[in-house]
Design a protein that fits this description.
The complex is a heterodimer of chains A (115) and B (118).
Chain A (H helix, E strand, L loop, with lengths): L2 E3 L4 E5 L4 E3 L2 E3 L5 E8 L6 E7 L7 E2 L2 E6 L4 E6 L8 E9 L7 E2 L3 E6 L1
Parallel strand pairs in A: 2-12
Antiparallel strand pairs in A: 1-4, 3-9, 5-6, 5-10, 7-8, 8-9, 10-11, 10-12
Chain B lengths: L3 E4 L2 E4 L4 E8 L5 E7 L6 E7 L2 E5 L6 E7 L2 E7 L7 E8 L13 E2 L3 E5 L1
The chains are: A mainly beta (115), B mainly beta (118).
Chain lengths: 115, 118
């Protein structure tokens, strides 16, 4: 069975600071993908970044980077230079080969960016 | 702009009403999903359609009835709902459902339909 764990229910971060959101996962499948989504209060789930289990390099997308440590089964999201618009719920998710399309979500981390 | 369009954005219905949620995508995706999300919780998968056929039903009560009229449209028919069914209903699509876990097969979500059952 797959499991995604996000241990930080909420975080405050000052504008222009970097923030790291933790995510650990558990799967016996050697082939899987890890995803981070952002959900503002409006409700839409916005895809941020992807990391494949066989990728040798950590993924980066603009101000988002993923700190992938395969042996520790962690996939932490780093947001650099936080902006007020980054205030949202952030979900880590995993999709494995044997999950037949199911995207398993973590509990989420609520981020509030303060001026 | 989201590439998955959901209507209506808000819906209020009584327990005896029949209503439908609609979802449309024009990305050529062949897998479409319905998720239910309660406040402060992660989305929970309800249904998956693959090539217009129901592939996964996560033991959803029969008062929720999905329909996929064509590869671009996904409906969720609602009948005799309970107040605890009040939630945000998210539609998503991806290139395919199956074993492709690559970033090319990422799920794209719509903005959601916020349902209140009185």
């Amino acid at each position: 069975a797959q499991k995604i764990t996000q241990t930080q229910p909420g975080m405050f971060v000052q504008e222009k600071e970097a923030v790291t959101l933790d995510c650990t996962y558990d799967t016996s499948d050697p082939s899987y993908g890890l995803f981070w989504y952002k959900q503002p209060s409006s409700g839409e789930m916005i895809f941020l970044i992807y990391q494949g289990s066989y990728d040798q390099q950590n993924a980066t997308e603009g101000r988002y980077s993923l700190n992938f440590q395969k042996a520790r089964k962690s996939a932490n999201l780093v947001i650099s230079a936080s902006q007020l618009g980054d205030s949202a719920m952030y979900f880590c998710a995993m999709r494995a080969t044997d999950s037949w399309g199911k995207l398993q979500f973590g509990a989420g981390t609520q981020v509030v960016v303060t001026p | 702009d989201t590439e998955v369009t959901q209507t209506p954005k808000h819906l209020v219905m009584g327990m005896t009403n029949k209503k439908s949620l609609k979802c449309e995508q024009h990305m050529g995706h062949r897998a479409m999903y319905w998720y239910k999300q309660k406040a402060k919780k992660p989305p929970e998968l309800m249904f998956v359609y693959s090539y217009e056929k129901l592939s996964i039903n996560e033991s959803v009560p029969s008062r929720f009835s999905p329909e996929c009229p064509n590869s671009s449209l996904l409906n969720l028919h609602l009948h005799a709902l309970q107040p605890e069914d009040s939630a945000l209903y998210l539609c998503a699509s991806s290139q395919s459902q199956g074993t492709d876990t690559s970033g090319a097969n990422v799920l794209t979500f719509g903005a959601g339909s916020r349902l209140t059952v009185l």
